[in-house]
Amino acid sequence: MKIGRVIGTIVATRKDEKLIGTKLMITQPLDLDLNPLGESIIAVDTVGAGIGELVAFVTGTASRIAARKMDSPIDASIVGIIDEIDINKSLLGNK
Amino acid sequence: MKIGRVIGTIVATRKDEKLIGTKLMITQPLDLDLNPLGESIIAVDTVGAGIGELVAFVTGTASRIAARKMDSPIDASIVGIIDEIDINKSLLGNK
Amino acid sequence: MKIGRVIGTIVATRKDEKLIGTKLMITQPLDLDLNPLGESIIAVDTVGAGIGELVAFVTGTASRIAARKMDSPIDASIVGIIDEIDINKSLLGNK
Amino acid sequence: MKIGRVIGTIVATRKDEKLIGTKLMITQPLDLDLNPLGESIIAVDTVGAGIGELVAFVTGTASRIAARKMDSPIDASIVGIIDEIDINKSLLGNK
Amino acid sequence: MKIGRVIGTIVATRKDEKLIGTKLMITQPLDLDLNPLGESIIAVDTVGAGIGELVAFVTGTASRIAARKMDSPIDASIVGIIDEIDINKSLLGNK
């Protein structure tokens, strides 16, 4: 999983019929300081995530498992709303 | 899924026979400002995308699901034509 | 596998029910000098890794195999606690 | 698929027996101007590609499908010889 | 496959039991000049590779196929010892 923030949605009238009814959320991956990191993706929402929420998302087969749609052309899904992140960054300086 | 723009096609006379009849579109991934981002890919069109259109594409197993060709050597497919992108970028500044 | 250090945890009350009971650890990939390298991920702990420990983690299908949960939306798992790394970096200069 | 150029071969006497008889081609991914982009890979040739040819290659499961060897440790295959690339780069400037 | 050099090993006493008995080799991906390129990985040795040897390695499902352990949490394996690399780099300048 990666940490991201839901920042928008896309509308696609013409699409694979297996995607009808899915909520397609633009999700921006974030670093540990919650700053944008890398390219945004379009993830299927499976947990009722709202715009602006901090989420955990998965990619690949895990995203079809999350959507309970193994036969849909999905390659990224939101699987959790993050309430809290506890990090001890000082650990990164210790060898 | 990722956001891209269809910018061309390739012609390949000698190819895997399972690819015969597929439309191979050169697709450029875009960032949220719709500027090119990262390397272009050759994606199979499954929704009738035309040159210049803004699309959503998937990679990996999802692309074979999209093409309804699980036994074809496909690793990227266009799955939707994007009509509209709604983003609230100010959310990226909020921690 | 890659080398990483467990630097924290996330709390997600609202999440895919298949993730209930998994320990979600923020893991920072490291280079050979044990400095941070690339973006951190949220990996499922399958070996009792503690905060601060040096670990080996896998991604993709291997992570669901590690978790013994093939039907869970998992795409990264910790599979070992690293006791020792033996590297001969001088080999990198030899052609 | 990605665009690449076959620039060489490797010889490996000691290798997985499932790879015996495969043609292992060093393939350099290219950008749209056909300049090298990113790291080269070793791809299995499935279409009779020669040194110097412009090719389309796939990665992951698609590469085993291409090789018709689902039980071989293959993660990249050449699936087509590119005759022609038609691109309209001006489309990348249009938002 | 990618080209790499085996530069070390890791010791992990506490690990997934399916990994017991596997040889975990730190492998550094190399560019075509055999200089380090990108992050090192921990790959399972399936061909008797020694420290310092130039190898071909695969990632993903192909690595479990190589190890003949489809139910092990493996995501990278060494599949060949490279005896010789024949490259014609001048081809990269030809469009």
From TrEMBL, chains A, B, C, D, E:
An annotated GO cellular component: carboxysome
InterPro entries linked to this entry: EutN_CcmL, EutN_CcmL_sf
Keywords: Bacterial microcompartment, Carboxysome
Localization of this protein: Carboxysome
Species assigned in the record: Tissierella pigra
PROSITE patterns: BMV
Pfam families cross-referenced by the UniProt entry: EutN_CcmL
The protein's name in its UniProt record: Ethanolamine utilization protein EutN
UniProt KW Transport keyword: no
Protein's UniProt keywords contain Iron: no
